[in-house]
Amino acid sequence: MRPLTPRRVALNCALLGLVLFVVVVISLRMGAYPISVADIVKTLFNGVLRRWEAIAPEFTSVVFNIRLPRIALGILVGASLSTAGAGFQALLRNPLADPYVLGVSSGAALGAIISLAVSPQTPGTIQFAAFAGAAATIAAVYFLGRRGGQVDSATLLLAGIVAVSFLSAVIMFLMTMLPGRDLRGMAFWLMGDLATQPRINSGWLYLLLIIGVGSIYAASSDLNLILTGEQEARHLGVNVNRVKLVVYVAASLLTGLAVSVSGAIGYVGLLVPHLMRMMFGSDYRILIPASALGGAILIVFADMLARTVVAPTELPVGAMTALVGAPVFIYLMRRRVR
Amino acid sequence: MSSASPVVTAQRATGVRLNVEQASYAYAATDRSAPKFALGPISFEAKEHELVAILGPNASGKSTLLTMLAGLYKPLSGRIEVDGTEVSQLDLRVRAQRIALVQQESELLFPLRVWEYVLQGRYPHGRRLRFESQEDCLFAGNALAQVGADALRDRWMDQLSGGEKQRVILARALAQQPSLLLLDEPTQHLDIGGKLELLRRLRKLADNNRYTVLVVTHELNLAAEFSDRIVLLHKGKCLRVGPPAEVYDREMLEEIFEAPLEVEMRPSGRPRVILRGSR
Questions:
Q1: Which CATH class, in words, describes the domain spanning A6-192+202-337?
Q2: Packed helices A153-177 and A125-144: angle between N→C axes, nearest 10 degrees
Q3: pTM of this structure
Q4: Is A1 within 8 Å of chain B by CB?
Q5: A241-300: pLDDT as tens digits
Q6: CA atoms of A109 and A130, how far apart (whole Å)
Q7: Which terminus, N or C, of chain A has the lesser number of Cβ atoms within 10 Å?
Q8: Does A95 touch chain B (CB under 8 A)?
Q9: H-helix or E-strand containing B162?
């Protein structure tokens, strides 16, 4: 009997943090302007110590103004989507749940677009609208996916597919109607990319990330029991309804947060928690922090590929994640049917 | 050993652990419509070291009664007390420290090892976000030993046979350290040897470890053999409460189970039911 200890959680997270750091450094190196790894590490080091005078000005501009903000955005988005995915999987007791597959990301995108059309200048409204869109969509999909009082796995996924195509159609309709047909904007909301920096101070976004991940993590012992069976969790003293409400709000918040800054990037919430389960087991006390870090690693890496494989043009990062994510989804689905 | 136990337990049993007073419950499709199914009122009590069997044909309200005793349904009227406190007043965690309910287990979504499953039983004894202590492992290990499932510790839950799984589920309930152990048709998927072994084990737990055990079952003969008291339900009504010898009345059993049968009194003082194949 070797129960999970806080020490093991910390150790594994430190390991993933190290991997993230390496991926960030590699990603900082890739791009049109060549910088050596040694220069990047030196620049980062001096930047952390706020010794700006010790850094060459062109490095400051390339590292701190261009590449690092994009990477930071990738970390935010990856961590949010993966944690939301793990949260939805427990909430719906469905291993195939993912914000994109369930249509939650599309709902968030629609909310964001409406808020942009109505009040484009007020900061924070877009995040709130994306959150509201996400929360409304997951509620709708949940009720559509119920059959005879039970959430049926296949029906739920079908409801998600219908939600994605319906909401995408509404998004296309709105984008076409709005002044200045914005095809690039359409691709952004439907596929997702990290090329645009959010107008809101990113400190607020990170605060929301910490609140969202923290509330799901605080419920992780409860989620372990709920995954074994809701009724049994009740017998063991879990306030199932309260836990589900918290996870529902937090996962919707995280999805809205990610979509509001990067559009609907798919399959991250599916891929990463599954990968982490294979590596660390399905205990949510380690799965949640591991997924947050793993999601950050995946998105930073995928965005690096999206920026470089067809340089000088760029692919949307959502195309990269879908290329990998869709086959994995099929694999997981086939394995479950067996 | 088990046939002599009722006399012994009657002497030892002191504290009333479970007290059910005129408890009733009703299901309805909506708040306004007439109830579809009504249960009770039911009164009985169970003491320390006692094993009580809840019997009755299908749809007689056995599982509803058990769920109500576990505090998951609030009785419409009457009282259900465990160790002197009304069950519905208990905090969820405190309730799970006193009462363990074993039902048919749900399908696991992700693979889980036996020891991880049993450790879940320690949940009510900790804070919300918790990591298991050495003490928790000790309790879980003891629980596994009590059901004779030590060797299964490192196996995966989905690779166990029906009987093994039933023992592990029971071990998780014991890891809760409850005083009241409720089991909903635990014998359902077991073969005849497994059924006998499970009831022997429950009898032993009641005799040696101060548990009060309530079992919902269809096994009339095993209930007669191992229980101190029978609660006989039919269509939501409690027909009789008492020792097996008093409750097993041929005419009544024939009527409620709708089967021709005979009741035979054995030298041990416990009745035996024999089904008559043809008249």
A1: mainly alpha
A2: 140
A3: 0.86
A4: yes
A5: 999 999 999 999 999 999 988 988 988 999 999 999 988 988 999 999 999 999 999 999
A6: 6
A7: C
A8: yes
A9: helix B162-175
- Closest of A109, A106, A86, A107 to residue A98, by C-alpha: A86
Question: Which residue is it, tokens 């054995």?
Answer: B266
Nearest Cα neighbor of A85 from A184, A189, A216, A234 is: A216
Query: Could A229 and B130 be called an inter-chain contact, meaning their C-beta atoms sit closer than 8 Å?
Result: no
ipTM of this complex? 0.82
Q: What is the pLDDT of residues A110-131, one digit of tens each?
A: 998 888 888 777 778 888 999 9
A231 contact B CB<8A: yes
Two tokens, residue A240: 């199932």
Contact B214, B54 (CB under 8 A): yes
β-strands B99-102, B85-86: how paired?
unpaired
- Please return the burial class of B133, using the count of CB atoms within 10 Å of its CB with bins 0-12, 13-18 and 19+: middle
Neighbour tally for B78: CB within 10 Å = 16
Within an 8 Å CB–CB cutoff, is residue A330 touching chain B?
no
Is residue B229 classed as helix, strand or coil in its secondary structure?
strand
Helix (H) or strand (E) holding A290: helix A284-308
Domain boundaries along the sequence of chain A: 6-192+202-337
Rounded CA gap, A161 and A141, in Å?
Answer: 9
Q: Which residues of B touch A231 (CB under 8 A)?
A: 103, 106
SS3 A69: helix
| CA–CA distance, A205 with A126 (Å, rounded to integer) | 12
Q: Which residues of A touch B153 (CB under 8 A)?
A: 1
